[in-house]
């Protein structure tokens, strides 16, 4: 009887440890841009967050870790790979990405930042392989194209081809719809005279 009880206790403890790493009950899903008073579309808030982090972080590695944590809910430490496998968190939900990167969801910030962080572990080739074969994001899909941008962004920062001070502008220029395009889209949808 004691052996069965010991096995049951061990199973419960193992399940609790697994749940802690997979579910992360202490994870923060709040939008970090709200406390920083950043505004605009999700893409614009990502760009503004990158500008803020570029000003406050000391180096590229710290910047990329903070961007992953604050924009995508990806831990800086030992749980980062688990967070990536789980898909991170939509900490900056919304839209505002160029049409070629827009899959119709509100999770493109999380998606982009996931590729940024994944490429820190596996580099370009491994991250693209995972994207295509495990995540099923073909290269010519919105998610595949956005993933390629995430990989390029991280690798250019790491290699020094992109300065931290340029990160915010890079994101806004490469990923975000122009504000006028967003307003035109919303105006087309409300052509009923505002009713």
Q: Which structural traits does this protein have?
A:
single chain, 195 residues, mainly alpha, 9 helices
Write the layout of secondary structure elements.
Blueprint: H1 2-23, H2 32-35, H3 42-56, H4 60-72, H5 80-86, H6 108-133, H7 142-159, H8 167-175, H9 179-189
Number of beta strands: 0
How would you classify the quaternary structure?
single chain
Could you tell me the mean pLDDT? 84
Strand content: under 5%
The proportion of residues forming helix, as a percent range, comes to: 55-70%
From the N-terminal CA to the C-terminal CA, the straight-line distance is 72 Å
| Order of H and E elements | HHHHHHHHH
**Biggest sheet, open or closed, and with what strands and sense?**
none
Overall form: globular
Tell me the number of structural domains.
1
The helix tally amounts to 9
Rg (CA only): 19 Å
Runs with pLDDT <50, length 5+? 182-195
Find the structural class using helix and strand composition: mainly alpha
């Amino acid at each position: 009887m004691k052996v069965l009880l010991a096995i049951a206790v061990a199973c419960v403890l193992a399940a609790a440890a697994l749940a802690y790493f997979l579910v992360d009950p202490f994870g923060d899903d709040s939008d970090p841009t709200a406390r920083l008073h950043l505004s605009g579309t999700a893409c614009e808030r990502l760009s503004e967050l990158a500008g803020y982090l570029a000003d406050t972080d000391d180096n590229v590695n710290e910047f990329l870790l903070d961007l992953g944590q604050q924009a995508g809910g990806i831990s800086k430490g030992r749980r980062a790979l688990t967070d990536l496998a789980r898909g991170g968190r939509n900490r900056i939900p919304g839209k505002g990405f160029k049409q070629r990167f827009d899959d119709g969801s509100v999770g493109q910030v999380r998606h982009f930042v996931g590729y940024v962080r994944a490429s820190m572990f596996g580099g370009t080739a491994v991250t693209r392989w995972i994207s295509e074969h495990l995540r099923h994001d073909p290269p010519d899909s919105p998610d595949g194209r956005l993933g390629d941008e995430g990989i390029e962004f991280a690798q250019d920062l790491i290699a020094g081809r992109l300065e931290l001070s340029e990160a915010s502008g890079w994101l806004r220029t490469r990923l975000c719809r122009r504000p006028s395009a967003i307003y035109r889209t919303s105006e087309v949808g409300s052509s009923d005279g505002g009713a």
